[in-house]
UniProtKB/TrEMBL annotation:
Protein name per the record: STAT6 protein
Gene3D superfamilies the UniProt entry points to: EF-hand (1.10.238.10), SH2 domain (3.30.505.10)
A GO biological-process term: cell surface receptor signaling pathway
PROSITE patterns: SH2
PANTHER family (alphabetical): SIGNAL TRANSDUCER AND ACTIVATOR OF TRANSCRIPTION (PTHR11801)
Keyword flag ATP-binding: no
Length: 234
């Protein structure tokens, strides 16, 4: 006899997300010579980072993995802790409950449900943008405000939505005549939205967007992602 890879039987499509979480956790963290179905309840955060990175690269089919600053944002999210340093998180362990049982504060979904939504959106609609490093993605709205508030009018960046599963939003700075700045987040785009009109073309459409953070003209950054418009198209 030989142990197979983990299998989860589901009876409805709405169980698919939980099934994927179970398989991922079992594959990544079970011991080779374990008793069947026995798997760690808690794992080091560093091991979780490696697992999320491998999963992201495999699903999206990209060579551009997650960066240190991405892990920091993900740690703040899964541990609900915005005061710890990057080094503090490295010594922590994360539980199965934090990964896929506990609802994120103020949301209606778990960490894994949110992350899996990002995976699906990126795989379906954003692979080339991610691979070209045009999407920061894993960054908090608060930190975006800090980054953009001192930038010139029209500076923008792309981040994955915190409030919706599978959404990407554009944050941009508006600078008033008196020098004051305001950072606005455009309503997140879903995979359905981006199948109707691509992200590149939506960015071209929005006249208030000028430079991709820190200072790349948007046509230079996204020009290769624009679709040529049909003659007479509005």
């Amino acid at each position: 006899q030989v142990l197979s890879l983990p299998i989860v039987v589901i009876v409805h499509g709405n169980q698919d997300n939980n099934a994927k979480a179970t398989v991922l956790w079992d594959n990544a963290f079970s011991e080779i010579d374990r008793v069947p179905f026995v798997v760690a309840e808690r794992v080091p955060w560093e091991k979780m980072c490696d697992t999320l990175n491998l999963k992201f690269m495999a699903e999206v089919q990209t060579t551009k993995g997650l960066l240190k600053e991405h892990y920091f944002f993900l740690a703040q999210k899964i541990f609900n802790d915005h005061s710890a340093s990057l080094e503090d998180f490295q010594s922590r362990s994360v539980s199965w409950a934090q990964f896929n049982k506990e609802i994120l504060p103020g949301r209606g979904f778990t960490f894994w449900q949110w992350f899996d939504g990002v995976l699906d959106l990126t795989k379906r609609c954003l692979k080339s943008y991610w691979s070209d490093r045009l999407i920061v993605g894993f960054i908090s709205k608060q930190y975006v405000c800090k980054l953009l508030s001192t930038e010139p009018d029209g500076t923008f960046l792309l981040r994955f939505s915190d409030s919706e599963i599978g959404g990407v939003t554009i944050a941009h700075v508006i600078r008033g005549k008196d020098g004051s700045s305001q950072v606005e987040n455009i309503q997140p785009f879903s995979a359905k939205d981006l199948s109707i009109r691509s992200l590149g073309d939506r960015i071209r459409d929005l006249g208030q967007l000028r430079n991709l953070y820190p200072n790349i003209p948007k046509d230079q950054a996204f020009g290769s992602h624009y679709n040529s418009e049909r003659p007479g198209a509005g």
